[in-house]
Every structure is written in structure tokens, then in C-alpha cells.
Amino acid sequence: MQQQQQQRRMFTAALLALVFLLAAVSTTEAGKKEKPEKKAKKSDCGEWQWSVCVPTSGDCGLGTREGTRTGAECKQTTKTQKCKIPCNWKKQFGAECKYQFQAWGECDLNTALKTRTGNLKRALHNADCQKTVTISKPCGKLTKPKPQGKFPLLKAA
């Protein structure tokens, strides 16, 4: 009998805890306000398409680039933007393309050139850059191997 009373008390306590938990969750949910959905602005304006950055003077530094977009209801279809071309980038691959280069390879004795590969690290202003590039340069002064030994061989007479 005593065991049944103890079981009833535990059941009642568990039931009360469940009711309390449901009430707490219900109150929390009721406190949240639903946010009205933002109305999407309909526009027929396309994305901006940008030209390459053209330096004001020289082949690097400050310059400008032109942007255009299409659309019948666009308020602005062309604009000019200031830009900058870093002076330490290799311009032969595009002034807006930055590459991370590997170490120089061994000298090719047939061509007297050594090469290395660069992987695209960064493209400014969504420039169209090659993913990998290869450059070559002359090996420099090639030396012939010296004969082994300390002294030249002498012929006996």
C-alpha cells in the first residue's frame, strides 16, 4: 500500500512537471512576434559589368574603370568607379590578377630557361583571370663542370 502511494506521488509530480513545461513553452511561443515578409523589389536591372582598371598614368597605381548594366527601368546604366592596380603585381597576366608562384624549377639545358607555375590567389573587381600561369626566365650563366682532382696529370718522359 505504501509503495502504491509513493508511485502515485511520483506520477503526480511528473504530470505536474510536464504541465508546467508545456505552459512555459506555450508562453514563450506566444511572446514571439511574426515578422512580416519583406516584399522583394522587382527590378529588371542587370548586374554591373565592369571593364578592367585603367591607370591614370603609367601601368599601375590609381585609375578608373567603367561599369554598365541593362534594363528599361534602371535609373543608372553606366558609371565610373575609382580603382587601384598594385604596382608589385606581374602585369603580363592582367593587372587585376594576383598569383602565388612556386619556386623556380631546374634549368632546362636545351632551352637555357627555368620555369615556375603560379596559382590564382586573388582577382580584383571580378576580373577574368587564368587559374594557373607559367613563366620562364633565362637560367643565367651556365658553368661547365670542372675536372676532378687537385693536379693535372703529368706525362713522364
From TrEMBL:
Functionally, this protein is described as follows: Secreted growth factor that mediates its signal through cell-surface proteoglycan and non-proteoglycan receptors. Regulates many processes like cell proliferation, cell survival, cell growth, cell differentiation and cell migration.
Give the record's family classification.
Belongs to the pleiotrophin family.
Q: Encoded by which gene? A: PTN
What protein does this entry describe? Pleiotrophin
* Record's GO cellular component terms: extracellular region
Single annotated GO MF: heparin binding
Q: Has the keyword Secreted been applied to this entry?
A: yes
Any signal peptide, and if so, which residues? 1-30
Q: Among the record's GO biological process terms, what is one?
A: positive regulation of cell division
